[in-house]
Amino acid sequence: MKKFYLIISIALINFNMYSQNYEFGLIHVSNYDFKVVAIPDFASGGNTDVSDVGFTLVLPAGVSDLINETSLLSGRTWNVSQFDAAFLTNQGLGDGSKDVFQFNMPPGQSILSHTNGQQIDLVSFQVSDMPTSSEMYFLLNSDPIATGAVGVLDSFYNSDIDGPGTGVGTIDYFSGIAPELDSFSFSTLSTEDSTVLESDISIYPNPTSEFITISSAISINKVELYDLLGKKVFYTSETSQIKISQLPVGVYLVKIYSVKGVLSKKIMIE
Known about the structure:
Elements: H1 2-18, E1 22-30, E2 33-40, E3 44-60, E4 66-71, E5 79-83, H2 85-90, E6 98-105, E7 110-114, E8 120-127, E9 135-138, H3 144-148, E10 156-160, E11 171-172, E12 174-177, E13 183-185, H4 195-198, E14 201-204, E15 211-216, E16 220-226, E17 232-236, E18 241-243, E19 250-258, E20 261-269
Parallel strand pairs: 1-12
Antiparallel strand pairs: 1-2, 2-8, 3-6, 3-7, 3-9, 3-10, 4-8, 5-6, 9-13, 10-11, 14-15, 15-18, 16-17, 16-19, 19-20
């Protein structure tokens, strides 16, 4: 019986150890300023020793560069390497439509304490050339570009989270990308409306508190709402009355995708 309890105890220790993970998230700070954060699924009392961290971001080929990278962890530096579409194609990776930017924080020591779900700031950067279309997103470790690069472009979070004497040491605790913080659409930074669509589509009431109604003379495919940080907070294929009372008070960007293009309008929820 004692042996049985011992086996259960060891199993529970191993489960708790490997259930401690970090996700990465892409945060829009303002305009073309961004940062990447790590989000733990456990609380730490200060015994987390961060060694080295890495991830890769993707932009459409030739659209922009990532510049002015600044470490948000005291005393640490980041190296950023760009692999453009032409280089990737020559290596048999990708289809020539993507540039990738690999961020790497070399091994070192950062002792951190954090709560469950806390956003830990890792690095900030800017996007050059002010794009108003296309998307920036994390390259997944399962993406063919990443697997073809044999680990060079992988995301990882190497840390010793249990401290000296535990026998565990530094291992990779990266578990994936936070679902709501996996990408950013630059179209949310543009509020220019199509003059053709302006006469075809109207949104009312504005301000509103319960519903918005979309009146249109053309076919609508989908409707998206973004907050002022560029985060998509709502999606629907409904083309008439849309319930928005579940959203917090504030200003939102409504993007209406139709057969003739996209209309962007700001609304106030009060």
